[in-house]
Amino acid sequence: MLAKRIIPCLDVRNGRVVKGQKFQNIKDVDDPVSLAKTYSEQGADELVFYDITASNEARDIFIDVVEQTAEQVHIPFTVGGGIRSVEDFRKVLKAGADKVSVNSAAVKNPQIIQEAAQKFGSQCVVLSIDAKQNEQGWWTVYLNGGRVNTEKDVLEWAKDGERLGAGEIVLNVMDTDGVKTGFSLAITKAISEQVNIPVVASGGAGNQEHFLEVLTEGKADAALAASVFHFEEIKVKELKDYLAANDVEVRRIS
Amino acid sequence: MISIIDYGAGNLKSVQHALSTLGFKTEIISSKEKINESDALILPGVGAFQDAMDQLVSLDLVDPIRENVKKGKPILGICLGLQLFFETSYENGKWAGLSLLEGEIVRFQDDVKVPHMGWNTLIPNPNANLEKGISAGISEKDYAYFVHSYYAEPKKQDEVVLWSDYGVRFPAAVQKGNVYGMQFHPEKSSEVGMKLLKNFGELVT
């Protein structure tokens, strides 16, 4: 049976992993490649590297991180952040990434999904959606880390993404990001039921129950989190034991 | 020397790194001469079936691959590489493959999410040898990483070594003599994948 996936996300700045929380000014750093190895050994199913640098020099360092990870870590990983063109896709795939996630650039130019899918195959095109719910309960797509509301309907955008050729959707709920009150189950479920590609839930993970909820009730195919793993509040191995005990199919390493 | 065929379809580095980590000598090749010289071949691949066949044809690699395999040279097809081994694919049309194995490539039905993406269990064929050979050390509890929308329907079920299940039972690994195929990505399947690549490497070097 296909297992539900657990995916730690690593934000990378200047070649280092930034461990930050939204509402707490904690910053710590770690080497991305060694952290990736550690997660892989603990049984993480995939990894996401998110480039949060701005300068070109830092971009080269990031590509170097991608190359080293591909050499040393034998699980799949997605690269996101700063992907603006098909050429950007090519660069990170060439460096060894398995999938590339595109966010703002796809909102501005949806054709990038189609072009990348045609060039490299749908399996490596991930549409990452930042979503927020307004007071009327309407979910819309946001840009620039939640600062710009595009007024685009989240569910429609997910369907558009599938139609254009995305092979997977990451739904990142901004309201719950970093606040650890649980994933947003209803919108995750709605998207998962209405597209026929895998859906990764992101934003809000605080405890093991949250993962269980989103992988069952929320119908997510995978769950992504950062700080709970980085700060070792949740260990991948223990999380998987917990999920397995609750009848969720997960890959456990012996 | 294990030669990885570069025909513009996919991530060769991961396969090469994995084999190097295991201590096998590898090179990336794309010529007929190099195919003739190699001890064993790996045909990787992601992307579309038709594009991949077109590339093999335009690089003039189809006959060299077939001839070398016929003479007994071991070959491992990974993901799309396995699919190319079969006779026909129905991926957006009907396309001829390398015909190293009998059978067809068909799409998963829409009652499951497509692509089939993630870790799925390996189910050894009852006649598979789990003591030695390509599937040595593999058990029912093992998972491998898959990313694909199409799967093989082999004519001969005894050429399937490992099955997997995604709405339908499909071949995860096949073998016919010196022809080996893996639908999953061993280079991305952590310890289980490394075990399978090691098995292949030891069989051919």
UniProtKB/TrEMBL annotation, chain A:
Gene: hisF
Catalytic activity entry: 5-[(5-phospho-1-deoxy-D-ribulos-1-ylimino)methylamino]-1-(5-phospho-beta-D-ribosyl)imidazole-4-carboxamide + L-glutamine = D-erythro-1-(imidazol-4-yl)glycerol 3-phosphate + 5-amino-1-(5-phospho-beta-D-ribosyl)imidazole-4-carboxamide + L-glutamate + H(+)
Protein name: Imidazole glycerol phosphate synthase subunit HisF
Function: IGPS catalyzes the conversion of PRFAR and glutamine to IGP, AICAR and glutamate. The HisF subunit catalyzes the cyclization activity that produces IGP and AICAR from PRFAR using the ammonia provided by the HisH subunit.
GO molecular function: imidazoleglycerol-phosphate synthase activity; lyase activity
Self-association state and partner proteins as the record states: Heterodimer of HisH and HisF.
The entry's keywords: Amino-acid biosynthesis, Cytoplasm, Histidine biosynthesis, Lyase
One BP term from GO: L-histidine biosynthetic process
Lineage, opening ranks: Bacteria, Bacillati, Bacillota, Bacilli, Bacillales
Entry's family note: Belongs to the HisA/HisF family.
GO cellular component: cytoplasm
Matches recorded under InterPro entries: Aldolase_TIM (IPR013785), His_biosynth (IPR006062), HisF (IPR004651), IGPS_HisA/HisF (IPR050064), RibuloseP-bd_barrel (IPR011060)
Subcellular location: Cytoplasm
From TrEMBL, chain B:
PANTHER family found in the cross-reference section: IMIDAZOLE GLYCEROL PHOSPHATE SYNTHASE SUBUNIT HISH
SUPFAM superfamilies membership: Class I glutamine amidotransferase-like
Keyword Cytoplasm: yes
Primary location group: cytoplasm
Chemical reaction(s) catalysed: L-glutamine + H2O = L-glutamate + NH4(+); 5-[(5-phospho-1-deoxy-D-ribulos-1-ylimino)methylamino]-1-(5-phospho-beta-D-ribosyl)imidazole-4-carboxamide + L-glutamine = D-erythro-1-(imidazol-4-yl)glycerol 3-phosphate + 5-amino-1-(5-phospho-beta-D-ribosyl)imidazole-4-carboxamide + L-glutamate + H(+)
Pathway as given in its UniProt record: Amino-acid biosynthesis; L-histidine biosynthesis; L-histidine from 5-phospho-alpha-D-ribose 1-diphosphate: step 5/9
Glutamine amidotransferase domain mapped to chain residues: 4-200
SUBUNIT field: Heterodimer of HisH and HisF.
Record-level GO BP terms: L-histidine biosynthetic process
Subcellular location: Cytoplasm
HAMAP family, A to Z: HisH (MF_00278)
GO CC entries: cytoplasm
Keyword terms of this UniProt record: Amino-acid biosynthesis, Cytoplasm, Glutamine amidotransferase, Histidine biosynthesis, Hydrolase, Lyase, Transferase
Documented EC number(s): 4.3.2.10, 3.5.1.2
Matching InterPro entries: Class_I_gatase-like, GATASE, Imidazole-glycPsynth_HisH
Function: IGPS catalyzes the conversion of PRFAR and glutamine to IGP, AICAR and glutamate. The HisH subunit catalyzes the hydrolysis of glutamine to glutamate and ammonia as part of the synthesis of IGP and AICAR. The resulting ammonia molecule is channeled to the active site of HisF.
Species of origin: Salinibacillus kushneri
Gene Ontology molecular function terms on file: glutaminase activity; imidazoleglycerol-phosphate synthase activity; lyase activity
Catalytic residues, chain numbering: C79 (nucleophile), H185, E187
Protein name stated in the entry: Imidazole glycerol phosphate synthase subunit HisH
